[in-house]
């Protein structure tokens, strides 16, 4: 049975073929030469690539491609069972395992449905990692590349198995964790705040993987405070309030307002007010601020920006991009390199240089620190003291002699207890015995109440219920409208875009850009979080 008339094809092209073959024979250049270079150029142009490298045969080409991909032992290479030995030989040579798939009866090409079954079988067995699909065009009949590509994307995890964990991004490490539990045969996955440190693009990728796992019969439980993500990725939502199960609802029947009402127990407003402050003035100016850790690794690299009185300057970035070092360097808690400058401009007074000053000296200059790290009791609060005692840490020097004024701190403690709904038996109850969220309320409430000219806050609403979070947002806005320069480090881009006036984006310790929060998008900021686009405020739009 003759599928293709090769003789007829040759006769149609015979004059052109014979002329060019004779030209090669006359030149005597059988390896390389102008004809090979021209072929590579035309092939590269045809497929839309910058370069093309020709090989002596298809086997060499496949092996070169496998080697470029790092294919080796433990990898599965999927091939049609009706093919030439070249489809299989390079995989064997590199230590990979060929996995054969059936072909379609009408084309004799790789059958997409058989490919999917074989990939599922490999994943279920857990001994090999799917790496390559060899889609062979048999006898001139093209494969169904769209269907094959869709299957590869469905089960694809963008992870280089040879890449070191310490060289991976946060999202890649997270993917490795998911692959690990799937490899062990897990059917139920629990993800606790999985998007807290991801860019919007990485979040979309994670959700795509989660949907694929759901389609494969896995059960997923996601714990998150980001309601738009809950509505985007879940099928049902269970609501907890103060450690108690409130109820659950089908996601299709819920919205952010209804979920918030269930979480809080009463109707709340989900609007963040962002008024404009008339005539903002420079309050804090950083110029070429550089910091090194104890190992000599750069944590901040020539960071420059100006925080204005009467604005909230958001700080965004993947976790570990220099947010902590930035706030601590301003507060005098982290040493900065020579040549760094941090200038503070108080109301109606000449500016002063903060570099080289102690935290107490900086505090006297009007800069207040509201830094809430992972170890909330490690900075700012004394665990053995109650709320009143911790309020006194801001005012103990105002006491006369050995007598310390407890009246004002107690009034402040009572006010924070009421306004932020701190769950504690009394203001004398040790803060170390409070929950993490309540400890955070005490710390943030105290710092806001200190009436600073510059207020810095890192992850001020982490661990807080949504009602208290909005209370904190309103307090930040109140400070802004009093002319305070607010520096707000956050991890929720939706909140940063709604609350802030400008957003400074850090990437690898450098300023990737500063954007207007009223016009910027999550996608724009997400890209800036993963690559450096500029280092100076003057070089970016604001």
Description:
There is one protein chain. With 542 residues, the chain is α/β, with parallel strands linked by helices. The chain folds into four domains: 55-154, Aspartate Aminotransferase, domain 2; 167-264, P-loop containing nucleotide triphosphate hydrolases (Rossmann fold, 3-Layer(aba) Sandwich); 281-366 and 452-539, Rossmann fold (3-Layer(aba) Sandwich); 379-450, no CATH class. It is 37% helix and 19% strand. It contains 18 helices and 17 strands. Strands 13-14-15-10-16-17 form a six-stranded mixed beta sheet, sandwiched between helices. Strands 9-8-11-12 form a four-stranded antiparallel beta sheet, with helices on one face. It has a three-stranded parallel beta sheet with strand order 2-1-3, with helices on one face. Helix 15 (436-449) runs parallel beside helix 16. The longest helix has 22 residues, at 6-27. The radius of gyration is 31 Å and the shape is elongated.
What is this structure, in a nutshell?
This protein has 18 helices and 17 strands.
Helix/strand layout:
Elements: H1 6-27, H2 34-47, H3 58-69, E1 75-80, H4 89-93, E2 97-101, H5 112-125, E3 129-133, H6 145-154, H7 170-183, E4 188-192, H8 200-215, E5 219-223, H9 227-233, E6 236-241, E7 244-250, H10 256-264, E8 281-292, E9 298-309, E10 311-316, H11 323-330, E11 341-344, E12 352-353, H12 359-364, E13 367-371, H13 387-392, H14 407-419, H15 436-449, E14 454-458, H16 466-481, E15 485-489, H17 493-499, E16 502-507, E17 510-516, H18 522-530
Helix pairs in contact: 14-15, 15-16
């Amino acid at each position: 049975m003759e599928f293709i008339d090769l003789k007829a094809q040759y006769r149609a092209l015979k004059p052109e073929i014979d002329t060019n073959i004779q030209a090669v024979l006359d030149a005597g250049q059988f390896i390389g030469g102008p004809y090979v270079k021209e072929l590579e150029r035309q092939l590269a142009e045809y497929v839309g690539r910058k370069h093309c490298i020709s090989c002596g045969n298809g086997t060499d080409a496949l092996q070169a491609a496998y080697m470029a991909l790092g294919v080796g032992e433990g990898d599965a290479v999927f091939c049609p069972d009706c093919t030439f030995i070249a489809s299989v030989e390079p995989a064997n040579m590199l230590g990979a395992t060929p996995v054969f798939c059936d072909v379609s009866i009408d084309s004799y090409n790789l059958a997409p449905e058989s490919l999917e079954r074989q990939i599922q079988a490999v994943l279920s067995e857990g001994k090999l990692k799917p790496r390559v699909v060899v889609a062979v065009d048999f006898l001139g009949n093209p494969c169904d590349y769209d269907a094959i590509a869709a299957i590869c994307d469905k089960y694809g995890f963008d992870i280089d198995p040879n890449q070191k964990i310490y060289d991976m991004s946060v999202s890649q490490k997270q993917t490795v964790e998911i692959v690990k539990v799937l490899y062990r045969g897990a059917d139920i996955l629990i993800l606790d705040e999985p998007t807290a440190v991801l860019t919007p693009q990485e979040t979309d990728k994670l959700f795509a993987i989660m949907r694929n796992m759901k389609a494969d019969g896995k059960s997923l439980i996601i714990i998150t405070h980001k309601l738009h993500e809950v509505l985007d990725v879940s099928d049902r939502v269970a609501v907890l309030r103060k450690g108690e199960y409130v109820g659950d609802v089908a996601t299709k029947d819920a919205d952010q307002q209804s979920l918030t009402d269930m979480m809080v127990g009463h109707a709340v407003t989900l609007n963040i007010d962002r008024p404009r402050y008339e005539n903002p003035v420079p309050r804090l100016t950083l110029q070429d601020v550089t910091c090194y850790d104890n190992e000599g690794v750069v944590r901040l690299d020539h960071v420059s920006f100006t925080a204005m009185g009467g604005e909230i300057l958001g700080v965004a970035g993947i976790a570990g991009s220099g947010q902590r070092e930035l706030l601590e360097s301003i507060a005098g808690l982290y040493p900065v390199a020579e040549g760094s400058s941090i200038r503070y401009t108080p109301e109606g007074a000449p500016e002063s240089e903060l570099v080289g000053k102690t935290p107490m000296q900086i505090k006297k200059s009007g800069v207040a620190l509201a830094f809430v790290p992972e170890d909330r009791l490690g900075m700012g609060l004394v665990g053995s003291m109650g709320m009143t005692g911790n309020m006194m840490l801001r005012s103990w020097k105002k006491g006369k002699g050995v007598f310390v004024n407890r009246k004002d701190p107690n009034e402040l403690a009572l006010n924070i207890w009421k306004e932020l709904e701190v769950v504690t038996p009394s203001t004398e109850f040790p803060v170390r015995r409070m929950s993490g969220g309540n400890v955070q309320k005490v710390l943030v409430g105290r710092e806001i109440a200190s009436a600073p000219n510059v207020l810095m806050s890192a992850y001020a609403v982490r661990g807080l219920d949504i009602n208290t979070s909005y209370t904190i947002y309103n307090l930040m806005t109140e400070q802004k409208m009093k002319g305070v320069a607010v520096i707000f480090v956050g991890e929720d881009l939706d909140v940063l875009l709604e609350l802030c006036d400008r957003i400074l984006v850090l990437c690898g310790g450098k300023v990737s850009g500063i954007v207007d929060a009223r016009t910027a998008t999550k996608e724009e900021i997400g890209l800036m979080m993963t690559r450096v686009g500029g280092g100076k405020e003057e070089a970016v739009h604001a």
